[in-house]
User: Fold this.
Amino acid sequence: MTGKILEYIKDYYGVEVEYLWESTPENGALRNPNNKKWFAVLLGSLPKSKLGVKSDEKADVLNLKCDPLFTFTVVDNVRIFPGFHMNKEHWISVLLDGSVDIDELKMLVDMSFELVNSLSKKKK
Assistant:
């Protein structure tokens, strides 16, 4: 699922993952090209236990910006969680293990991109 969503983001938005941290080379940020703000953060091989799941498994996770009103609707603590290592009101963490289908994932990515894109429009 990770490859599919990163391919979608590259094809649709022209954005590729920037691997910024030497200490965690599997983690990267995706920035809105209009304002350079992050709209997604890829966390590679995150232990599911960090999300509150009772499991020793690791999974790729995509942190996405989310409207605070929608955050509380979409978080189910099974597939979609409050944003790991982010503001839990404004970010969600989505498992990329196939539990969220690609169409729902694309919709969440699109929402995140537009939320970040609107930040640059408000300042003008």
Summary: Helices lie at 2-13, 68-74, 102-123. Strands lie at 28-31, 38-47, 58-65, 80-82, 91-95. The chain has three helices and five strands.
